[in-house]
Structure formats: structure tokens, C-alpha cells
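Comment thread on ticket #2218

A.B. wrote:
> Attaching the input chain for the structure job we discussed in standup.
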Amino acid sequence: MGGFHLGNVVGLVLTPIVMSSIGLTGPFILFSSLGLLWLTTWTLRVTNDPQESHAISNSELRLIQAGKSNATPLKKGELPPLRLLLSKMPTWAIIFANMTNNWGYFVLLSWMAVYFKTVFNVNLKQAAWFSAVPWGTMAFSGYVAGAASDYLLKAGYSLTFVRKVMQSIGFIGPGLALLFLNYAKSPTVASVFITVALSLSSFSQAGFLLNMQDIAPKYAGFLHGISNSAGTLAAIISTIGTGYFVQWLGSFQAFLTVTACLYFATAIFWNLFATGERVF
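C.D. wrote:
> Ran it. Output below, let me know if you need it in another format.
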């Protein structure tokens, strides 16, 4: 996930520079070209089995094989039991967590440059730098979250406890930071609060993003597809809705407060219904 967040840094920094040099079409040409280059590389190097890959060391291969689930794979033509998956509350805990995570994530990703321009009258190039810094720290904090969860597991804490702690940090932390953001009086202070919000939200990588493998190793891919579809819908609604909401009320404060409350509500739901035990 670190590369995912660092990509946001590169995009936020390069986009205004390319736009000012080439024009509005510049970023689209640049990033689509990079995407095609990566797709070509991926197609040539990806394999069906880790044993077939020349890019994996023997020690890494042994680690992958040791961590494989003993769940029997689906038979050819067999469909995952959608009704059964949706009948259990741990599934809904993951779905709501994904929705909330994407809601806050894409609001910050899409609107922070506009936020700095609107609230603090920072030009777009400066706003890009203020917006990019938090994503860089998010890449590092995701590593911290993984190391912390591994430490807790080795210390004897249950998987359920660890998933709940990591996800609580990933939601309550950003919620509090967004509330404090309403009182920021300078772009520097605002950038600090946004950095805290995004850094703590990366603890979700050791929360709901891993939990689908915990509760449904046989259907983890399918469950991820369900929850991510719901999350994508939430991201679309939040990204579009922010503009209408800000235009209606004339400020970002109310929408930041709504997003913070959503973080808190989902954190409660997660702690009530999530589990690290296998359910399916």
C-alpha cells in the first residue's frame, strides 16, 4: 500500500506543474502513458503461482507458502454463497468500514487542494505541496501499523483484539483530526491536521483490509469485491457530494464534521460486530 500512497504524492505534485507547462490535457497524457507502461510490465511478469515467478527469492517463496490458507478452493463453476456472506454481521462490519474509509480517503484526495485554495487563498502549486505531504507520511504509517499489529500478535493478543485496535485507530484518529481541522487558522496548521488524519487512517491496512482474509479465506477475493464496490460507491457520492454540500453551506466545516461523525459511528459498529475468527 505504500506505493499506492506515494503515487498520490507524485500525482498531486506533478499535475499542476504539467498543467502549467503543457495544458489541461498534459496530466491525462502523462498518467495514461505511465499506466500503459505499467500494464505492459505487469502482463509480461505476472504468474499464476509464486513458484513460477523469477522475481521471488527462495526465502520469500517459503514465507508465502507457509502463510497459505488450508481452505479448499472453489470448484470450477462454483459460485460464492452471496446470501450466506451477507447474512453475517462481520461481513457488514467490513463493508461499512470500506465505505467509510473510501468516503474520507477520496474527499481528502480530491478536495484538499481546493480546500487550501478556498479557505487560505493558497495558489494551486502551493496547495499541491500542502496536499501531497500527508500522503507521503501515510505510506510510512502504514508500515508502522503492520509492524505494530505483528508485535501485538506475537505478544499473545487475539487476532480479534488486534483488528479492532488497528481499525479503531484508523477511524477515531482521523475523525478527531478532521474536527480539529475546522479550527485551523493557517495552511501549515491545516496541513498538520490533514497529515495526522491520513497517517492514522492508514492503520485500516491492518484492520478491515486484512479482516476479509481472516473471516473468509475461501471467499476473501469475492468479499473484497463486494466491500470495495460499496466503498467505490461511497467514494463517488462523497466526492460529488462535497462540492454540492460546500456550495450549499458556503464552507468546508460542516462536511468535515459529517465525515468525522461517520468515522466515529463506523468505529462503534466495527467494535461491536467485527471478529478475527473464521466465519465462513
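A.B. wrote:
> Thanks. Noting for the ticket: The chain is about 75% helix and 0% strand.
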